[in-house]
Amino acid sequence: MRPSVVHSREIQDRPVGYAGPNLDPTGLTLTPEQLGRGVYALVAAPPPKDNGGVIVGSRSALVVDAGVNEEIARLIQRIATDLSSVPVRYLANTTYHGDHTFGNAAFSDDVIILSSYQNRVSMTDLEGEKRIRSGNMYGNDAAFRNVTVWRKPDITFERFLCVDLGDQEVELWHFGPGNAPGDTIVYAPGAQVAWTGNFLGHAGVAPMLLEGSPEPYIRSLDAMKETLDVETIVPGHGPLGPARPAIDWMIAYNQWLLEAVRKRITAGDSEAEAIEQVAPPDMLSVPPGAPPQLARLNVNMHRLDVMATYRALAAERKP
Ligand SMILES: [Zn+2]
Fold first, then answer.
1. What is the mean pLDDT of each run of 10 residues along the chain (319 residues)?
2. Contact 166/57 with Cβ under 8 angstroms?
3. From ligand 1's centre to the CA of 30, what distance in Å?
4. Least C-beta-crowded within 10 Å: which of 77, 196, 292, 297?
């Protein structure tokens, strides 16, 4: 049976006054943080620019996410070469979004790109993707100048794929929609570390319901919780953290959001009114020591989530 696919589009509108994450690669640094034997997070500064990862086995290495353009993809490959004496043979994409995949084309053809089938299906409109992601470049119009090819994953999977790097297994999982329809988790079971892309951030950090809505997201999070014994998550953006509190928090926030927006719809609010009425709850708080731009971003993402939830619930009500 062929996998079912979703042909969706990211919400193009943003709430009034919205300011999204600054993902401009200018000045980006990636610092390796070892989390287990051969398992490294690449921690981006300043946050919330794109984090990444390198997983090293006895025969080959796998890179997690390709960076926002060729220059960053080359930086990632230099770091991977420094960390390991074996060749990079695999690249995993956690999402189709350009900030994670525009660097794909700068990896050699020998490097096999892996992701969910749904992520591959979502990679059709390069110009549209550059347009929408340019909103995150904060005026750096040159960031995507050399992005002319959107290299898609070579090998895809519906739910699960296991890769053997030699004495180091890596699991790729797709638990269902979250931030986007194809969210892919990269799990290193030996170290109990998972790269969660845009699917799951640190506890307290709002998601971005760009192509999703709370109910399916909760089902996907439940499936991840039941399936994986993760200790540490490396989100696509923002600080690393313990996995279980992050999953429980994300489920609780989605449930809260659903109820809060449902109440405003029942009260007769318009979308704009609901965005103003559903104030950020106390549970929305970035971890101690996080820079102030993350706290501001959290409020912006919350407003976007109210908008997305309002639209999802309004669409359900239509006959
Ligand atoms: Zn991203």
1. 82 92 97 98 97 98 98 98 97 98 98 98 96 95 96 98 98 97 98 98 96 94 98 98 98 98 97 97 93 94 97 85
2. yes
3. 15
4. 292
Looking at residue 122, what is its pLDDT?
96
* Confidence at residue 5, expressed as pLDDT on a 0 to 100 scale: 84
Ligand 1 centroid to residue 198 C-alpha, Å: 6
Q: Who contacts 296 (Cβ-Cβ below 8 Å, separation ≥6)?
A: 19
Sort 83 into a burial class: Cβ within 10 Å, 0-12 / 13-18 / 19+.
middle
153 CA from centroid of ligand 1 (Å): 17
Distance 94 CA to ligand 1 centre (A): 9
Question: In this structure, which residues have their CB less than 5 angstroms from ion ligand 1?
Answer: 97, 99, 198, 236
Q: In the chain, at which residue ranges do the beta strands (DSSP E only) sit? A: 29-36, 39-45, 52-56, 61-64, 88-92, 112-116, 155-157, 160-164, 169-173, 185-188, 193-197, 232-235, 241-242
Token couple for 275:
């965005």
Task: Quote the ligand 1 centre to 101 CA distance (angstroms).
Answer: 9
Residues 6 or more apart whose Cβ sits within 8 Å of residue 244: 225, 230
What is the pLDDT at residue 3?
79
Q: What is the pLDDT of residue 319?
A: 63
| Cα 288 to ligand 1 centre (Å) | 22
Q: 282 C-alpha vs ligand 1 centroid, how far in Å? A: 25
